[in-house]
Amino acid sequence: MLRVFILRAENVRTADADISDAYCSASLAGVKKRTKVIKNNINPVWNEGFEWDLKGCPLDPAAELTVVVKDHETVGRNRFLGEARVPLRDVLSSPSLAASYSLPLLDSRGQSTGIRVRVIEARQLPGVNIRPVVKVTAAGQTKRTRIRKGNSPFFDETFFFNVFEAPAELFDMPIFITVVDSRSFRADSVIGEFRMDVETVYSEPKHAFLRKWLLLSDPEDFSAGAKGYLKVSLFVLGPGDEAPLEKKEISEDKEDIEGNLLRPTGVTLRGAHFCLKIFKAEDLPQMDDAVMDNVRQIFGFESNKKNLVDPFVEVSFAGKMFPSMCEKMRIRVTDWDRLTHNDVIGTAHLCMSKISAPGGELEGKGGSRTGFGVHGRGGALHDPGCRHTRVVPVVLQRSPMGHIPEVPSGLSNNSFSPRSPVDDGLGFLPTFGPCYINLYGSPREFTGFPDPYETLNLGKGEGVAYRGRMLVELETKLVEHVEQKVEDISADDILRVEKYLRRRKYSLFAAFYSATMLQDVDDAIQFEEFTHVLSPPGCQYYYLPWGNVKPVVVLSSYWEDISYRTDAQNLLHHAADRLEANLEKVHLALKANCLPSELDALAAQLMDDVIADCSLSLPDVLGKAASTHLDQNMYRFRSSNLEQMVKAALKLKHEDSSLAVALEQAEDWLARLKAMAEEPQNSLPDIVIWMLQGDKRVAYARVPAHQVLFSRNISGCCGKNCGKLQTIFLKLRVQLWFGLSVDEKEFNQFAEGKLSVFAETYENQTKLALVGNWGTTGLTYPKYSDVTGKIKLPKDSFRPSTGWTWAGDWFICPEKTLLHDVDAGHLSFVEEVFENQVRLPGGQWIHMTDAYSDVNGEKVLPKDEIECPPGWKWEDLEWDTDLNRAVDEKGWEYGITIPPDRKPKAWVPAEKMYHTNRRRRWVRLRRRDLAQMEAMRKGGVTDDKSDDGKSISTLSFGVNRPTISCIFDYPYAIVSFLHQSQKTVVIKNTLNPTWDQTLIFYEIEIFGDPQNVSDSPPNIVVEIYDHDTYGADEFMGRCICKPSLTRSPRLSWHPVIKANRNVGELLAAFELIQREKPAVHHIPGFESELASSLDESADLDLPYPPPQREPNIYMVPQGIKPVLQRTAIEILAWGLRNLKSYQLASVTSPSLIVECSGQLVQSCVIKNVKKNPNFDVSVLFMEVRLPQESLYSPPIIIKIIDNRPFGRRPVVGQCTIRSLEDFYCNPYEEETSGPQEPSDDVSLTPRDDVLIDIDDKEPLIPAQEEEFIDWWSKFYASTGEREKCGCYLEKGFDTLKVYETELENVEDFEHLSDFCHTFKLYRGRSQDLSDDPSVVGEFKGSFKIYPLPDDPRVPVPPRQFHQLPARGPQECLIRVYIIRAFGLQPKDTNGKCDPYVKISVGKKSINDQENYIACTLEPVFGKMFELSCTLPLEKDLKITLYDYDLLSKDEKIGETVIDLENRFLSKYGARCGLPQTYCV
After folding, report:
1. Is-contact 972 988, C-beta < 8 A?
2. What span, in angstroms and rounded, lies between the C-alpha atoms of 1002 and 984?
3. Contacts of 426 (CB under 8 A, 6+ apart)
4. How many Å apart are CA 222 and CA 387, to the nearest integer?
5. Which of 323, 413, 799, 860 registers the highest number of CB atoms within 10 A of its CB?
6. What is the pLDDT, as a whole number, of residue 15?
7. What tens digit of pLDDT does each residue of 153-188 get?
8. Which of 1458, 1453, 1446, 1449 is nearest to 1396 (CA)?
């Protein structure tokens, strides 16, 4: 006997109501049982039991109980609600012969179901140089994504499959998701696959898998392990289902990939052990305060500052299986605190993709395996010889005593040779070290306060300081069973690691050349060691006055010699940099449309360089005692890759492949070289340069050590910046050399001057208030001190090092005081002096004893006795009272002195009886006299001790003093070069300023070898600001440019960057003019050798200054300024459309302003936009001077102004047309693209009557053919649906041309903009910077640009815009033929929709709701709709498809908008869709 209990159902409702009267019937072997009816309840509870007599026969394991739920109807048939089939085999398999079920109710009658698959991204796909594409197959249909590059591609594509099947058949349908390498044409191009059936997805909550990772496997061999991961969303949407919303992407760190992973059954993964050995740490910073240490000292114990840290190590790895999706193993060193929370000292990561390789096949090397996990974010950790994994525990081993003992002398270092975890190919399991890992984070200084930069110690962001290092080793073993434990490291391992710890002495030399563009400086600046006082600003920024005596920092330290790693790293970086530069040259040549021969030469050079760079042999690590397993694996991997790249390059070179193929291959090589150049075992810490302001750290730069490391190997092994002058964006020019101390003499070949070592101390004095003389009386800090004034440094406390003697006596160093004058760095300066008077309250004003003072009240010379300093000349003839301040009409300001003060604290412009003091400011402008400065230089300014005749140029750091001429052409800009900066003029109310201005920086000293300076000159920084009358000027963007040493350099466009976004372009040229004149300098220790005779030869040919537009505003010189020509711009201003309101008022009376190259032209005002939005006068003309090369043409700016009451004329929209190339025309060339004028004449009215003689005796089409030949036959014949067109094609009749896209996108029809273009209008900046500015309307118009003859007497070319159509509103009849629609999205519960058409233009609309087409996603309408409109007022025709619903509101399926005006005005309007022949 079989007993069945039917308990309840959920959410059973009818299609047209929210309630139901549900009952349930169950049938087995033809016997049916039925429950009672539960009224008005969508969640009925029956709780009824039924029995079936099996009549002694055993229950068939394949038997099914069919359960049907129906809605009871009093009148008519009961309505079907759902069906479920209950497999009874579960009852037989249960020990208790009982089972419970919860099953979905399905519609067995066949229904429409939508399957939606969104392919998001893939990771860790195996293989080298692959181009993956994803194929999705469901319900017999296959769809593909676009082809992507690399091992971790991003797709984000969605596919729709609509199926009409009964649920039983539907649920058994498989979904195949296959990743294929599109580059491979072999049968084994499948990378990996995942299969599931539809039921698996439907049985999920909301019938969807959202953003799930799929584990891909080999469909032929499940035991082959993981083949990568694919992230997808899958939906099965039955009748009435809505697709659930996908949650936004969680950040990568927090995403639990392996907890969100679907694994196919049968794919076996094997267990793996990570064995991480942590030996020791060093250089950790102080983390605890010294209270206990002070107590120890009180009781006589010795102090031990080094022990003020209690470190322990945490290791975490999120992988739950192997190969793992987790990319990083985190190693964190933490300081234990007894009372407070533990503090993190530093965090380091081991990236699995960099310390393992999955293996793969190299092109051209059948069977050899390679593939370092270097493409993208991950690399599968997979050993081809070993499969099967589940969990990856981490085994930690620690050094038992915290230190490593010495190796006994008799013990061989090679006594330990573990089995290498590597197979025969190039794939290898994760392995690392023994090697030091460097920790970076917040600054090392300990304070008792919370660390504001603690997040840097957690590994977030770039660490700003070195915080110690740790010696670790990682091994991976594949095992059957797994366990997690922490144990001590064996003594053998501690001895084995000794050979990796040999240290060598390294020296770092850093010569600081200049430090400029410093902001908001109010204290002394130092770079870790050297401190210098600041000079006042040149214009906008401060700089350090180092003069010709440059500080050099020398630092010694001891590190492991890993030259075999850094040499290989630098070789690969060098190859990658050269390949990248060559690729850029080829791309630039392609953009510039160079000749094929030039392109071929560049491509050949690229191939030759690749072959040369990749043929260099890497340092062989296999014989090195200190090389690790990872070194050996990477050496084999890199060598094989380089060898393959050389072969491929030779093949491309000899086969004469196309340029496109070569470039594509070169891009792949570049990605591989960059990936191979990463060195995971880099134990040399980065070089950190800190800028300190007083005691505060304000800026830093981190320079990877390998970039400045010296190598005795071939030149490519030296770091790319070793010994080279580089600009580091603090903003600092510094020369760095790093290398072994035994090689330190090599630094001399890079040093560009004489290195002198000198001692310095600062003499301090104070000025007493009453006596007024400088002296040491009353001094509160040492008489001689360091620069901070805190450390006592008397002259006699200095002792020279062993082997050194003093080269002379103490001297005052002029470089430290040279540039402290207030006018330093200025080309013009306002001299000021204050005239002071006093009186008793109510008395007469009389001059004070100190009649003239500075702004602080300190006594100065009377104004008539002040002389112009040498090298300057007075710009103003006389002293003048400054009235541009809060003063009375004579320039006086008044104050009162309150004892014990000696002068007023505040000044006011109005005189009162009680005022006792008054003053006024006298000013006089002086300017640099360049001729006088030259004369002074020729006269020579030398030190008294300079009596030796030796030439100064052999002693000075910089022998050349270049003058820079910065040509700046492109609303004001600040140009900074080294320590000087200058401003352009302000251009008002424009987004496209044209300054036409040359900024000249005189007498800039660039120290260094002239060749080095010309190879890598200092950067020029151009910053563009928006000038505001009130408040601070707003920074708009910055560009960094290199000056050129060529005379009259070409102007070029430079991108303007703000917050890493491109915000505009700057047209400018920068010229550096070198002057071969020796500089006169004071050199410490070489005073006796200073030259007294200077070269009196004439100046080199400095270019004449360009012409001045106004005083001291130089224009751009002729050789650089583009050649301008008279140019005509004809503007067809047709009208304005769809203008949005401005400041809550609609735009009613707009006019147009067109600006170009400083000229502007204004249109007439449109009286009433709502009656006629066209301009009365349509053609405007302007004559401008434009560059002959269109590359340099300024943009055309269109502004729309609304003419409002009370003279208000706000700009309500504007558009910038950057490229004018499309509008250039030959004014004498007639229109050749078609018979325009005849077609225009025909379109208006025919000139003569046309008589067509029709012979009406013969019918047009024989009567018997009318049944099967019609317009539809013609249409189907044209679309290629031969089965539907009958014998139309056999008859030889004409076909239609059916376009696959909108007519506006068809090139042959010039995008229907041959008469006028449509320009979108924008307004201002939106609040959200990432947003596009909103479109506020459209301008209909066009431009014709052509050159005019330079001679005004020559007749001008004919005007281009003529024979224009009528400007007023025109009544038009529109006929819209709606034929059919494709691929509509389902809107109804049956997976279909009931579409109908709604057409609207202006306020008129046609709604064809009553003729909806039921249950289809591909309706055939075959209808013509006719309605009238007035152009241009109603130009937008909107065609919308709606889904008809009987009870609820109709849903919009989609819409399209057609611009009727463009179609009406285009000359192609009469040529679209014409028949090939006419039948008359």
Report:
1. no
2. 16
3. 357, 359, 368, 369, 370, 371, 372, 633, 636, 637, 640
4. 10
5. 323
6. 65
7. 999 888 888 887 777 677 778 899 999 988 765 555
8. 1453
State whether residue 1149 is helix, strand or coil: coil
For 1169, residues 6+ apart whose C-beta sits below 8 A from its C-beta are 1136, 1139, 1147, 1148, 1149, 1150
User: How far is the CA of 633 from the CAs of 128, 372, 610, 1069, 1249, in angstroms?
Assistant: 17, 10, 23, 50, 91
Cα–Cα distance list, 1152 to 749, 1166, 1434 (Å)? 66, 9, 21
Kindly state the DSSP code that residue 984 receives in the 8-state scheme: -
Structure tokens at 609: 């360089």
Q: Which two tokens stand for residue 1198?
A: 């269109």
Beta strands in 1074-1123 (DSSP E): 1108-1110, 1113-1114
Closest to 480 (Cα-Cα) out of 385, 381, 387: 387
Across 1361-1394, b (16+ Cβ under 10 Å) vs e yields: beeeeeeebeebebebebeebeebebbbebbbbb
Q: Verify cis geometry, omega within 30 degrees of 0, for the bond prior to 1432.
A: yes
Residue labelled with tokens 């070489």: 1086
pLDDT of residue 586: 92
Annotate 688-700 with b (16+ C-beta within 10 A) or e (fewer): bbbbbbeeebbbb
Three-state DSSP at 1051 gives coil
Selection from 1459, 1388, 1474, 1468 nearest residue 1429 by Cα: 1459
**Predicted local distance difference test score (pLDDT) of residue 291:** 61
Residue 546, helix vs strand vs coil: coil
Judge whether 1201 and 1151 are in contact, CB under 8 Å. Answer: yes
Residue 262 belongs to what H/E stretch? strand 261-262
Distance CA(1406)–CA(1394), nearest Å, equals: 18
The reported pLDDT for the residue numbered 240 is 62
Residue among 979, 1008, 1024, 991 at smallest CA distance from 1079 = 1008
Q: Residue 239: which residues within 8 A CB-CB, separation 6 or more?
A: 107, 111, 112, 113, 1388, 1389, 1390, 1391
Enumerate residue ranges in the chain where pLDDT < 50.
Answer: 363-395, 399-424, 529-539, 815, 817-820, 940-970, 1081-1098, 1232-1247, 1258-1266, 1326-1332
Query: What letter does residue 95 receive in the DSSP assignment?
Result: T
Q: Pick the closest to residue 312 from 339, 264, 289, 278 (CA basis).
A: 278
Per the CB < 8 A criterion, the answer to whether 721 and 749 are in contact is no
Rounded to 5 degrees, φ, ψ at 371 are 105, 85
CB half-sphere exposure, 1130, CA atoms < 13 A:
22
- Contact of 852 with 861, CB cutoff 8 Å: yes
User: 3-state DSSP call for residue 819?
Assistant: coil
Q: CB under 8 Å to 1259, separation ≥6 — which residues? A: none
For residue 1183, the model assigns a pLDDT of 92
User: Residue 932 has which token pair?
Assistant: 């006088």
**Among 354, 332, 351, residue whose Cα is nearest residue 470:** 332
Helix (H/G/I), strand (E/B), else coil: 1310: helix
Q: Where are the beta strands (DSSP E) in 411-479?
A: 432-441, 465-479
Q: What would the pLDDT profile of 1039-1048 be if each residue is shown by its tens digit? A: 888 888 887 7
Q: Which two tokens stand for residue 329?
A: 């193993």
User: Which sign does the torsion angle of CA 1351, 1357, 1361, 1364 carry?
Assistant: positive
Length of the chain, in residues: 1480
